[in-house]
């Protein structure tokens, strides 16, 4: 990760569960505190990008440590696929928005894929976030 500016907004929001779930929601207003973080991309970014780690509950010191020596390597960052590899065990995690390749991993369309090498074996976890595909081809 490279240093970047992040904006933060802390606010209370009020809404009903029915606004997001017509079948199971209620009309009772609920107010909760929210924290919104965002990176300002500018009015018309082109060829820009960023890479960040989510570190829930990490202290400031742990965050500095992981920023200086990230536990993952960014191996693909394109409009088709974003992927990282964890150095400690070789886990490869990729999100494909369309057909693409992340080093040795290819997929024929939208999917989230985890590949974990374990000795001579490999375990694969796959999800179709679109819920529209009947098959997904991974190589």
TrEMBL record:
Keywords, sorted A to Z: Lyase
Keyword Lyase: yes
Keyword Cytoplasm set for record: no
InterPro entries in the record: Gal_mutarotase_sf_dom (IPR011013), GH-type_carb-bd (IPR014718), Lyase_8-like_C (IPR011071), Lyase_8_C (IPR004103), Lyase_8_central_dom (IPR003159)
A GO biological process held by the record: carbohydrate metabolic process
Superkingdom: Bacteria
Polysaccharide lyase family 8 C-terminal domain boundaries: 74-136
GO terms assigned for molecular function: carbohydrate binding; lyase activity
Family annotation (Pfam families): Lyase_8 (PF02278), Lyase_8_C (PF02884)
GO CC terms, sorted: extracellular region
Domain Polysaccharide lyase family 8 central: 4-59
Protein name: Hyaluronate lyase
Species assigned in the record: Streptomyces sp. SID7499
């Amino acid at each position: 990760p490279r240093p970047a500016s992040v904006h933060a907004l802390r606010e209370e929001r009020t809404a009903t569960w029915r606004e997001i779930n017509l079948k199971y929601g209620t009309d009772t207003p609920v107010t909760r505190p929210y924290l919104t973080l965002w990176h300002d991309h500018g009015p018309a970014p082109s060829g820009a990008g960023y890479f960040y780690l989510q570190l829930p509950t990490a202290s400031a010191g742990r965050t500095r440590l992981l920023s200086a020596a990230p536990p993952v390597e960014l191996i693909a960052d394109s409009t088709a696929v974003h992927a990282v590899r964890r150095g400690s065990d070789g886990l490869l995690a990729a999100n494909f928005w369309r057909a693409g390749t992340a080093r040795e991993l290819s997929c024929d369309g939208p999917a989230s894929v985890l590949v974990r090498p374990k000795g001579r074996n490999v375990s694969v976890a796959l999800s179709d976030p679109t819920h529209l595909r009947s098959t997904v081809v991974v190589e």
